[in-house]
Amino acid sequence: MNRGIVIGEVFATKKNQKIKGYKLLLVCLLDEMKKPTQRVVVAVDTVDAGVSDEVVVAFGSGARNAVKPLSRDVLVDCAIVQVIEGVESFT
After folding, report:
1. Is 90 among the domain residues?
2. Is the whole model's pTM more than 0.85, yes or no?
């Protein structure tokens, strides 16, 4: 899983049936210092995130399970699974 920030929304008139009803959001991934990287992904929004929200994104089977647990027929490789409200460091 990675941290990112939502920078936009993707609009599609036609979607796969398994992800109908979900928003597709553009997420810029962040590095360890919370600085934006050059990597931007399209993620299925499972938690009703919005533009400028800091989020956690899951990839691969974690993303598929966020959309439909224990499913192998959902065509998802990236999903937003949390909106980050705050971070506490113990180092």
Report:
1. no
2. yes
Q: Which residue range is the domain that position 13 belongs to?
A: 2-83
The pLDDT tens digits along the chain (91 residues) read 899 999 999 998 888 888 888 999 999 999 998 999 999 999 999 999 999 999 999 999 999 999 888 878 888 999 999 999 988 878 7
| Per-residue tokens: 82 | 């949390």
**C-alpha Rg value of the chain to the nearest Å:** 13
In a domain, 69, yes or no: yes
What total number of domains does the chain contain? 1
Identity of the amino acid at 21:
G
DSSP string, 54-74: EEEEEETHHHHHHHSTT-S--
Domain containing 61 — which CATH number?
2.40.50.220
Tally the C-alpha atoms within 13 A of residue 84's C-alpha that lie toward its C-beta: 17
- The 3-state DSSP class for residue 45 equals strand
